[in-house]
Design goal:
400 residues; single chain
Length: 400
């Protein structure tokens, strides 16, 4: 039987597969046992860790338009979240796009409605790449609707929801419509691109990489690009540890559109310079990351004396960190200057040695040549006279 699949996703540990299909599968049967067509898409999950690859039908009703492409599996395959405009549990009579979720480890599957909006059918963020499920039953998504009463302006925000139906807005960031984000492998932070001046460090409104700590809400700007006119914000992804960004960022690196891999880790840079004296002749310099040293005050709202003191403490800590970083930079610069002087001396000495080998003093060499010629002629004359001594002696003997 020919089978049609949409929205295929596999969990990070490879234990579960999720997809929508118009092909009907028997709930609890083997994945290989398709029994016919139902005409409209249904959501299925397959347990790949079992020998029979058991299929479970998650959605007990058909999806709305293209809902099957808007789903997310948790990394361990235990939770699934998806978007649908169907009235799956009786709370969506107005047909809005809502997020639903299910615990795939439960003996009996049930669907929980996470969001419950009214009066609109807009769905900016309910797109597969912009929905991230977690192992503990939460889901992060992007939307412009007012889920918590904090987004009356209708800005694009990041929200978190859960199978219990609780929803929280993550900050108040006014993000870019159509953007995507990445959830770290340990589910502790979210990384994304934005052209907004979110913490006061992007006055040119260029696309920058940001990271928000889901534990304390701290927002950090990871890059400081000057010109990113050709950035495609919906095509940037981040590694699980948040150290590397991959995406279409042509305006900052090349004259044509293309994809670039960028190390955005806020780490220490090491510079090793060889002075030409073997393994012991090197100078090493460490430059600490300023991004990790500066705390800033962007996360503070100055509404009370306590919050002002907290912001002041943060500023003072940043000033101390800057002083420490300046000391490291100064020490590093001094060592680099020492390395430069050593290398300059070595170059000069090498040139002098080469000159002694290659260059010749013509006057000195000419005088030496004449001297050698005189010595050679004198030696020849003395040798000639020495050769005549036996003949003279014989002639004297004959006369006597």
């Amino acid at each position: 039987m020919q089978t049609s699949y949409n929205g295929l996703q596999i969990s990070a540990d490879g234990s579960r597969l999720a997809f929508t299909s118009t092909t009907q599968f028997t709930d609890g049967a083997s994945f290989s046992e398709a029994v016919g067509s139902v005409g409209s898409a249904r959501l299925y999950a397959v347990d790949l860790s079992s020998s029979t690859q058991t299929v479970r039908r998650v959605a007990q009703a058909t999806f709305g338009l293209s809902a099957g492409k808007q789903l997310s599996l948790s990394s361990d395959g235990s939770k699934i979240f998806f978007a649908s405009s169907s009235n799956l549990v009786g709370n969506n009579a107005d047909g809005n796009w809502e997020i639903y979720g299910s615990d795939l480890t439960a003996a009996t599957l049930s669907i929980n409605q996470v969001t419950n909006t009214t009066g609109t059918t807009a769905s900016i963020g309910f797109q597969g790449a912009s929905m991230k499920a977690t192992n503990d039953g939460r889901v992060y998504f992007i939307d412009s609707r007012n889920h918590t009463g904090q987004n009356g302006a209708g800005n694009v925000q990041i929200f978190s929801g859960s199978l219990s139906g609780s929803i929280a807005q993550i900050g108040n960031m006014n993000l870019t419509a159509g953007m995507t984000f990445s959830l770290s492998a340990d589910e502790s932070n979210i990384s994304f691109l934005s052209a907004r001046n979110l913490i006061g460090e992007n006055p040119t409104l260029s696309y920058q990489a940001y990271r928000i700590d889901l534990g304390n809400g701290t927002l950090t700007q990871l890059t400081n690009f000057v010109n990113t006119a050709n950035v495609t914000p919906d095509q940037a992804v981040f590694s699980g540890d948040g150290r590397v960004m991959y995406g279409s960022i042509a305006g900052n690196f090349t004259s044509q559109y293309g994809y670039s891999v960028i190390d955005i880790a806020a780490g220490t840079s090491a510079v090793d310079i060889s002075t030409g004296n073997g393994s012991q002749g090197g100078i090493g310099v460490l430059f600490a990351s300023l991004a990790s040293a500066l705390e800033g005050i962007s996360g503070f709202t100055l509404t009370s004396a306590a919050s002002a003191r907290g912001a002041l403490d943060s500023v003072m800590a940043s000033i101390q960190n800057i002083a420490s970083a300046r000391g490291q930079l100064g020490a590093g610069a001094a060592r680099l200057e020492t390395a430069s002087r050593v290398l300059t001396t070595q170059v000069q000495e090498s040139k002098a040695a080469n000159s002694r080998i290659v260059d010749a003093d013509i006057a000195s060499e000419s005088a030496q040549l004449v001297r050698n010629q005189i010595l050679q002629q004198s030696a020849s004359a003395v040798l000639a006279q020495a050769n005549q001594q036996p003949a003279i002696t014989l002639s004297l003997l004959r006369i006597s």
